[in-house]
Amino acid sequence: MTEQPLDRAARIEHRFNARFAEYFDTLGTALDAPAFSRFTPDCVGLLRDLSLRGGKRMRVVLLHEAARLVTAEPVDGLDAAALSIELLQTHGLVHDDLIDDSATRRGGPTTYYAYRERFPGRPRAALGLTVLAGDLALALSLRVLLEAELPVAVRQAMVEVQTRAATDTFVGQIADLERDFTAAVPDAEMLHDVADHKTARYSVLAPMRLGLLAAGAEPGAHEDELRRYARLVGICGQMRDDWLDLFGDEGTTGKPTGGDIREGRHTYTVVRLLSAVSGSERDFVDRALGDPACTPETIAEIRAIGERAGVADRMRADMRQYAERARLVAQGWRPRWREDAVAFFELLPRWSVERSA
């Protein structure tokens, strides 16, 4: 990205982080919890900690830039939409970490492991409270829109966008788990469909729809190209996440590498690795795949195998190819929408490929 969009993104991120903290500071008084309940404020505290711990807020930036496609003037409703987007993201993080049995997220404990530490002798309570914490974040993501001071029609349209985004994401999560039950190695189209449902529709498409709605535009009039752009960016982003799981820097990502290998997941990286190696190297990868006790040394050797086989470099090339296709979709918006905002969407795909975490 050029300096101007990066500076703008940083300002949006800084402002939203302050707004998000303020939201959680007042949330306790807004929840109608029984007076005796101590678990409820504890749950809110865990959600607050996870929500405010890192993250580049690119969904929020996408929301604001989508509104800027239509107008450079201040737009009502963006704060509520941004809170909704990030609360839905918090819901996803809580449940993802539970599904993956992840101990850390963004350099700190996951909600599930925080509850496990609080209730070491009550594993079912820790599990149940984690599920409920994620559910609460989802409900709050819709509630902030229902309570927003916006025209009823806009409010209703925004709630519909987020409800559809959440539904698509859940379907994507189900398909993601189903993909790993198949005996055959999945093909590219299956991986793309999972990335589209699981990531693109709530991380890219929904923020763009919400931003356009807040600015008074009708996103349905441009549905096909918005979906095409979001799908391509989502594929880039998912490829990058999968690449980072094996080839990334643990200190930068805040998560241990090799999680997908240990869980036996058929990600972009794992599928490319399986197709690139043979003989004793393939046997080595097969033995490690799905072994939760796989050591860091084994993961390091698999990483070296992937690098020698050119997997890391070829995946980078694939990511850049999809990023370029997304850029060309956005380039076609120039006759219709504001040029400086379109430029952001042209630059975003390549940024999603080059990011380090």
Cα shape: globular
Q: What portion of the residues fall into strands of 2 or more residues? A: under 5%
* Sheet with most strands: strand arrangement: 1-2
Number of domains: 1
Distance between the termini: 16 Å
Number of helices: 16
Annotated CATH architecture: Orthogonal Bundle
Tell me the quaternary state.
Answer: single chain
Q: What is the overall pLDDT average?
A: 93
Task: Identify the CATH class.
Answer: Mainly Alpha
Sheet with the most strands? Answer: 2 strands, antiparallel
Give me the secondary-structure category: mainly alpha
User: Count of DSSP E strands?
Assistant: 2
Query: Would you give the CATH topology?
Result: Farnesyl Diphosphate Synthase
GO molecular function: metal ion binding; prenyltransferase activity
Keywords: Isoprene biosynthesis, Magnesium, Metal-binding, Transferase
Protein name: Polyprenyl synthetase
InterPro entries: Isoprenoid_synthase_dom_sf, Polyprenyl_synt, Polyprenyl_synt_CS
Tell me about this structure.
It is a single chain. The protein has 357 residues and is mainly α. The protein contains 16 helices and two strands. The protein has one domain: Farnesyl Diphosphate Synthase, CATH 1.10.600. The chain has helices at 3-30, 39-52, 58-68, 78-100, 111-118, 123-146, 152-179, 188-214, 223-247, 250-253, 259-263, 268-276, 279-288, 296-308, 311-331, 339-354; strands spanning 104-105, 108-109. The protein has a two-stranded antiparallel sheet. It holds the Pfam family polyprenyl_synt. GO terms for molecular function: metal ion binding; prenyltransferase activity. Its cofactor is Mg(2+).
